[in-house]
Amino acid sequence: QHFVVSIQRQMFNQHEKLWRLQTNGLQHVPSLKWLLREPGGWSPLTSDRYQWLEVDLGERTKITAVATQGRYGSSDWLTSYLLMFSDTGHNWKQYRQEDSIGSFPGNSNADSVVQYKLQQPAVARFLRLIPLDWNPSGRIGLRLETYGCPYTSDVVSLDGSSSSSLVYRLSPGTRRTPRDVVSLKFKTVRNSGSLLHAEGDGGLSLSLELERGKLQLLLRRGSSSEPRRLASLGSLLDDQHWHHLAVERRSSHLNLTVDKHTERVQIPAEFSHWEIRQLSVGAVQNPDSQKQVVSKGNFRGCLENLLYNSLNLIQLVKHKDHQVKGNVTFSCVEPVSVAVTFPGPQSFLQLPGASASSSSGGVSVGFQFRTWNKAGLLLTFGLPQEGGVVWLYLNEARLRLQIHKAGRALLELTAGSALNDGQWHSVELNSRRGRLSITVDKEEGGGSSLTHIPPLFCSGCPAEDDGQECRNPFNVFQGCMRLLTLDNQDVDLIMVQQKELGTFSNLQIDMCGIIDRCSPSRCEHGGRCSQSWIAFHCNCSDSGYSGATCHSSVYEQSCEAYKHNGNTSGHFYIDVDGSGPIRPQLVYCNMTEENTWMVIQHNNTEATRLRPSSLGNQHSVHFDYATEEEQLSVAISQSEHCEQELSYQCRRSRLLNTPEGSPFSWWLGGPGAGRVQTYWGGAQPGSQQCACGLQGDCVDPQHYCNCDADRMEWTEDSGLLTHKESLPVRSLVLGDIQRPGSEAAYRVGPLRCHGDKNFWNAAFFDKETSYLHFPTFHGELSADISFLFKTTASSGVFLENLGIKDFIRIELSSSTQVVFSFDVGNGPLEVRVESSVPLDDNRWHRVRAERNVKEASLRLDDLPAATQEAPADGHFHLQLNSQLFIGGTASRQKGFRGCIRSLQLNGVTLDLEERARITPGVRPGCPGHCSSYGSFCQNRGRCVERVNGFHCDCGLSAYTGVFCNTEVSASFKSGTSVSYTFKEPYELSRNSSALPSSIYSDTTLRGENVSLSFRTSQSPAVLFYCQLLEVRYKLDGGRDAEVLRSRARSLANGQLHTVTIRRLSDSVQRMKNCIHLLTVHECLPAASDDLDPDLARLGSLGFTGCLSVVSFNSISPLKAALLHPDTSPVIITGPLARSNCGSSASANPYAAENTHHLSGRRREGPLVNAIRTDSALIGGTEPFHPVALY
């Protein structure tokens, strides 16, 4: 419907710069153009931002749209404007789109009509339009039309007194409904008071109370007990505007709604059968004593459309229904308080000063303010006679008064604290009888005196103030003020608005424009929200998430992902759904095997023995896991394989099979509480068998479990449960343990899973015109996109999704640049990251893009993230409606050629492989990972390709482990030695090629590379000995053996040392087949013609200590002895056991690993420095020699 608005000339006053338009009733208008295109229009004499057009609709109306047009036959039109609404003509509220955009788009000429439908209808009597911008070649000009519907409501006022309330008593025997719903609207200027109280059986009650402008949901057990807070919702609810409240009670929870925001609240179990006996509004009444329950005070304000289960309680009061009693006024009586908003750095208000009155002998200034800022100038004025200045300002959220003269502070006073909490705070500055005092919320500080206040300035100073009448060394105040008084006289801000009192700039008068950007909080995942006047900030510390809104997880989604970051075994937090709602969980990642295992413990993984019990025929045990249900379910689902050991050791304790077919024992497994499972580890689901029954090797062929043979000897049924739908094991019920002589023990191992189906989900795009499409991406407020790519092309679009105007796109714009672009209605924005290395190198590169209400960010590999801030007062909803294109665009241009892997949108992985199988030009999967991850294989480890990932082959390395970086060490006693016998070439050919090359290797030598690490406190000692033709380098027969010595003074200090020797031969033939025996520490005979006497003496002493990562060329004798003693040509003498003694962690944590230099007479070249134990072989050109420790 249209409301025809006619201009009443007698309502227009040029000095007020205000037109008031009143409706002459409702009239149907068949054509919008006919009404708006009538001659005339509004055009004020002065075109500036202090003009407005106000419409009085005569009564509260539901306004749904506005339409504007320029002034007829002119070049006058608006290009943007603000809309304000009010019930009383005071205390205006700005209408905002999407809770952010304040301005509306206007016209581009004088004739076209621009209509805007309000996303949320506004209910008001008064509408005010404020021009922001207009045609620069013309003036402000406007023809206006409003659209809406009549609005009817029932309203009451409560004055806050003990008798002003409304009480509804339910009739005894009233049939209980499956849910209770209370809804209403309220407005108030008080920030505290009891709004709603529901009393039930047993003294249980629920209350809704205002506290500091927030609505608190409280639970009470008895009228005198302390309330328990269940929830807090809303903010700034004391702004004297209407707020919607609804409470829906179901059996186990409440849905609490304040305005547009709803929170689900769990309530205690005793409320599941709780019935409401009495509903109190405005005060908390006890239904038995009729006395008020202790609360924050009574509510003072207005209520509208109070409904309980569709009953209109205000109507019942009007009709004097016996169930409802109330002392209320059937209208909304509200005080008039004119506030002023200082929105920006150019805002200021100048008011005339005041002189000391003869009666009081002093002067005073008073006002109230509210703000989110910690700092800012509240007011200032000069002291011309004294040559000084007075500043009243906020600093660190405290109020400070400073009198400054000649460059120094004559007086400083401080009062108040935490004054940036958004609440109204009162300030009084008084100078009486020689004493100056400053009072904040009745907290006073004092000293000095003033007899005269010249013109004062609030918030800031005029930009053109050349006379130094106003000086502001502080930040300007951004916030609201009201109830300004000078010498106890109210300042009429309406006169200021009409420029009849004082001067001002960039103010919003007759409204408080404060906005709580932390209610509801845009900080996700428990991030803590704080704010200033223009922005909010999220503190993400200890949340496990990062970004401007704590949206993106800082943890990987699986152990597999941690492995491919180069991590080794340990405890890690994994976030199975990335930025989704599931919290991170701590798991153990075992990376010592070819598969990377995620291990999730529960409360009883050890073997537990059971004996006959008289407490019952069954023993039941429940297993609690270290992770929550939702985390477990998703972790199992996205793993390639999961398993859990289930073991039962028994003596006269049967397990599954019984003559009648029902099992003695069973277990529950799967999601939630689990389902009953009647098979055992190693068997198939539903088989009611154990592993031996499946394999046919049970101790009694008539049974399918060993324990069902019911023998006196101990036996066992054990195996792995691998059916993911039945995991994890939730509980275990054992039934045959009550007979005399029955004994049993059970064990349920931890849950183990490996593989990550999401991490390796990939597709290969072989043409620029090929693409995959998925349903529309929904990331209205927060959107994060992550994936890996590899390509040989220099450009291409990874992803694109379009809307009517909005879009989102990520592309490779050049061989070194990735671009993230989008538009949410503020115009296209781009975030770019430039790489210093080419991105078309056919290696995996990781892209992470995020867009939220504060900023957009883009991260490429490990480069610093690039960010782009969102406009402070702009659109922030991303509205898309087309299909999501991957690897191309809707226009089939600029497509991507290459591989995309692990594509996730807001934590959800898109199944690229499934879609690729049915899409021409796209292939599922993408091989070739060693080019990206091969560098993880250390110490001569070799990268081996797998379908999903890679594997490090440590055959040529003296190390072991997933990345060939785990040292192989052993502790040696004085009688321990390891001897390695080299094989002849013809013998090597007869050995299996599957044996590690570090065990068998070609003995055709061009030289030697020797490396080992040791730790000992013994000196002297022999570490390593090689028996060959001329071991002491008497190669020419005419020279003495050469000896090289270390410059280090003491190597027998218990610390880890590394020795590396490298020799290059000048003749391959000369060394061929000369090495027959390699000995790692051997007690050499005391006398031998082949041994140097000094060496023989040292060998007789033996060696006690640690040897680690011993290698001779490609041979690793110590590794062969420890890991492959049965298949290697090694001889072990004395006790030998693997140890971690070669790890730096096993040493004194304060003692560093030492790397020393060797020196001696040079024969063929310089000797290069020794290296650390975790390095590859590095050497020089010095002949090989026995290594002795002195």
From TrEMBL:
Keywords from the named record: Disulfide bond, EGF-like domain, Membrane, Repeat, Signal, Transmembrane, Transmembrane helix
Disulfide linkage: 899-926
Membrane topology according to the record: Single-pass type I membrane protein
A Pfam family that the UniProt record links to this protein: Laminin_G_2
Location, primary (coarse class): membrane
Domain of life: Eukaryota
Residue ranges of domain EGF-like in the record: 514-551, 927-965
Gene3D superfamilies according to UniProt: 2.60.120.1000, 2.60.120.200, Galactose-binding domain-like, Laminin
UniProt-annotated location(s): Membrane
Domain F5/8 type C: 42-149
InterPro entries per record: ConA-like_dom_sf (IPR013320), EGF (IPR000742), FA58C (IPR000421), Fibrinogen-like_C (IPR036056), Fibrinogen_a/b/g_C_dom (IPR002181), Galactose-bd-like_sf (IPR008979), Laminin_G (IPR001791), Neurexin-related_CASP (IPR050372)
Matching SMART domains: EGF, FA58C, LamG
PROSITE patterns assigned: EGF_3, FA58C_1, FA58C_3, FIBRINOGEN_C_2, LAM_G_DOMAIN
The Laminin G domain, residue ranges: 155-332, 338-512, 761-926
GO cellular component terms attached to this protein's record: membrane
Residue ranges of domain Fibrinogen C-terminal in the record: 550-602
PANTHER family reported for this sequence: CONTACTIN-ASSOCIATED PROTEIN-LIKE 4, PIKACHURIN-LIKE PROTEIN
Family classification: Belongs to the neurexin family.
UniProt name for this protein: Contactin associated protein like 3
Organism: Sparus aurata
Recorded name of the encoding gene: LOC115572765
